[in-house]
Amino acid sequence: MRRARTAAPLTALTLALLLPQAAHATPPTGVSSVIVAKTTHAGRDYVVREITIGPGGGTGWHFHRGTLYARVRVGTLTHTAADCVTIRTYHAGDSLVEPSGPQHVHMGENRGPGPLVLDVLYVNPAGSALSEDAPAPPCAA
């Protein structure tokens, strides 16, 4: 009986070490936000949010289930797509659209010396999260 009790944890540990591990999401750093307004109509959530990213901060890799419309109010946003080649920079007054779906993984960073402030409108399927974490793409390693 004693042998069976020690074999199970040992087997689990061996499998954990030998099997490939799932990629982990990349959490945001230096990000704070406030929901300014929210309404639901015809199966869609419309959420207005103010997002602030401190110097050196970023959103982490993520995607959206709906379409996101944003305007840079203050600072500069560096927006990187999952191919790690498509990098766009948006300055105060610029706007951008992020399409929906896991095929549009991206991240946003504040590489500037001051805060980055975004005004964002999310148009999502009702009840869905504003964003979903995603693992860093292989090119970002």
TrEMBL record:
Gene3D superfamilies: Jelly Rolls (2.60.120.10)
InterPro entries: Cupin_2 (IPR013096), RmlC-like_jellyroll (IPR014710), RmlC_Cupin_sf (IPR011051)
GO molecular function terms attached to this record: dioxygenase activity
Signal peptide bounds: 1-25
Residue stretches making up the Cupin type-2 domain: 51-118
Protein's recorded name: Quercetin dioxygenase-like cupin family protein
Keywords assigned by UniProt, alphabetized: Dioxygenase, Oxidoreductase, Signal
Keyword match Oxidoreductase: yes
Source organism, top-level taxon: Bacteria
